[in-house]
Amino acid sequence: MELKLDERVRKTIKYMRAMIFFGLFGLALATIVYFSLIAYAKIQGPPPLAVPQSTLLFSNDGTIIGESHSGQKRYWVALKDISPHLINATVSIEDKTFFQHNGFDYKRIAGAALADMKAMAKVQGASTITQQYARNLFLEHDKTWSRKATEALYTLRLEMNYSKDEILEGYLNTIYYGHGAYGIQAASIYYFGKDAKDLSLAEASMLAGIPKGPSIYSPFSSIEKAKQRQQTILQTMKSNGYITELAAQKAGIEKLKLVGEHQNQIGIAPYFQDAVKNALKTTLNFDDRTISLGGLRVYTTLDLEDQQVAEKSIETMIAADSEIQASLIAMNPKNGYVRALVGGRNYEESPFNRAIQAVRQPGSTMKPILYYAALENGFTPSTTMKSQLTTFLFDDGRAEYTPHNFNNKYAEEDITLAQALALSDNVYAVKTHLFLGEDTLIETAKRFGIKTDLEKVPSLALGTSGVRVIEIANAYSMLANGGKKIEPVLITKVENHKGEVIYEYEEEKKEVLKPELASVMTHMLTGIFDKKLNGYSSVTGSTLVKKMTRPYAGKSGTTETDSWMVGYTPQLVSAVWTGYDKAKPIELTAEKSYAKNIWIDFMEKALDHEPATKFKPAKGTVAVYVDPTNGKLAADNCPVKRLTWFAAGSEPTEYCTDHLEHVDQKEKKPELKKEKKPWYKRWFGL
């Protein structure tokens, strides 16, 4: 009997030893696996948290003007910019021990396993916020064991490398709230039309319930189920000590104003938006995916009021049934900021950006660049040359060129440079171009920021070689700012999805033109509006004078197929082009005046709230009165005198003597003898 008992004891001890051994072995194995996972997770380092997010474009006052996305609205916001009510509601309903666990809630896992075993089905979830975030970031939502294992690994990596606040911020910015809204900012805007930081308790508790089943708990799917879910969340928040019973009751009965619209402003300045995206790619070297889905915050130079005025001016000034096209660019000449940009009359019909992409003949708007070069080479506003029909011979007489003035009118005598510009005399321009040498205008145009290749031909002086509207606007801006180099600026700053500044525009201050000559050129450009310079024809801006409320400098340009008007004040430069896309001749009289009318309408309205500022002469500039017909110093007897700016030392010294023989002499009329009235008429006052 004792032998049998001893044998049983020995067997029991043997079994116990085996159990202890295998238990210790299992525990050791589990420990090794656990620490191996920890080590592997540590070696792998922090997983990247980037997710596809909408890139937002902002105007100069911070208004969102557009966005890029692929059907998923995502706007990343910092945790501090999310309502505490939303944070508390989410933690309460999704993972109340979030701030205590290391990524896994083992108690919930055990409870969920027991519930599933009892029901013989998957009835209860146990995923923590960290696990859900890992799934949203890196994994598909399938239910395989391999996916679960990978999810656990990602969860460890998140917990080991990021703070709880960073994980919670990421989760709230990636979770799906239905109706294409990913993240709490997009959801807040869609459901309530406000930022996530402004959500009330009632709104936050409503939104926190949606992620469990967006198609079920969205108030737009079922307001009844959404309210039931909201009540559950409010009670959970009360139980977890976040709110009082009274606060829960008030939030539960609060009437919510639902919006149901995404923040969508892509209709604002579509040509400008395209130009910004192109600049991001070609100038700042962002790739297409980053531009579309990188969550960038792109701060632009667009002025919404100026843009609206520009679009309206084109719309109202051009007849609705006309097929002619138009483009406009407005810039701040001090820094190159593009304040308004219109690339065509209808973006949906034609997204081709005529302000930036089209290369068109600038006509006489090229002359200010030519005449600036002339000023550098000894010309002055008083330099005279003969205006008459002239044929120029080239290649030893084998080639010839005969420029014509508008309506074939010529002075048939000497005219000054100032008058030639105001009347847009083509003969004077070609003579100047050939006198300076054809390379001079090309090189000067490059200094003015003209990047398009120009043809080395005599007619270049008359703008027969194509340029872009944005280039002409930039060139005139350099005259307006006194000769400082600028480039058209569309983007002032770019932030990544974390709000970190990854690009910021830095203004380059460099003089490329002589300030005194830029001043002289500006003053000459005011001449197209000054009737004192009328000669064999009227100044080219005469039709606009009555519409002007402030001093302007400008120049119009006309070719057979293109019509231009470019001009400026000290505060604003704008360039307008009109014409047909297929370079069809502009024949209708009304269509020939579109560019000028659009320009003056835009400038007057855009500057309506600005003071009427006069142009100030630069240092080294002198102003004297001259006779506009001959450019000499005006004498007392000159019938017309015009104040004209010159570079110091280049002003005329000779007085005009052309009018000495025309001294006004009043003709003495013979005295008429008064007829003596008869006495009776005198007596009776008749």
UniProtKB/TrEMBL annotation:
Coiled coil: none annotated. Its main location: membrane. The chain crosses the membrane at residues 20-41. Residues 327-598 form the Penicillin-binding protein transpeptidase domain. Pfam families: Transgly, Transpeptidase. Residues 62-238 form the Glycosyl transferase family domain. GO terms for cellular component: outer membrane-bounded periplasmic space; plasma membrane. GO terms for biological process: cell wall organization; peptidoglycan biosynthetic process; proteolysis; regulation of cell shape. InterPro entries: Beta-lactam/transpept-like, Glyco_trans_51, Glycosyltr_51/Transpeptidase, Lysozyme-like_dom_sf, PBP_transglycosylase, PCN-bd_Tpept. It comes from the Bacteria. The keyword Ligase does not apply. GO terms for molecular function: penicillin binding; peptidoglycan glycosyltransferase activity; serine-type D-Ala-D-Ala carboxypeptidase activity. It is found in: Cell membrane. Keywords: Carboxypeptidase, Cell membrane, Cell shape, Cell wall biogenesis/degradation, Glycosyltransferase, Hydrolase, Membrane, Multifunctional enzyme, Peptidoglycan synthesis, Protease, Transferase, Transmembrane, Transmembrane helix. It catalyses: [GlcNAc-(1->4)-Mur2Ac(oyl-L-Ala-gamma-D-Glu-L-Lys-D-Ala-D-Ala)](n)-di-trans,octa-cis-undecaprenyl diphosphate + beta-D-GlcNAc-(1->4)-Mur2Ac(oyl-L-Ala-gamma-D-Glu-L-Lys-D-Ala-D-Ala)-di-trans,octa-cis-undecaprenyl diphosphate = [GlcNAc-(1->4)-Mur2Ac(oyl-L-Ala-gamma-D-Glu-L-Lys-D-Ala-D-Ala)](n+1)-di-trans,octa-cis-undecaprenyl diphosphate + di-trans,octa-cis-undecaprenyl diphosphate + H(+); Preferential cleavage: (Ac)2-L-Lys-D-Ala-|-D-Ala. Also transpeptidation of peptidyl-alanyl moieties that are N-acyl substituents of D-alanine. In the N-terminal section; belongs to the glycosyltransferase 51 family. This is Penicillin-binding protein. It comes from Mesobacillus subterraneus.
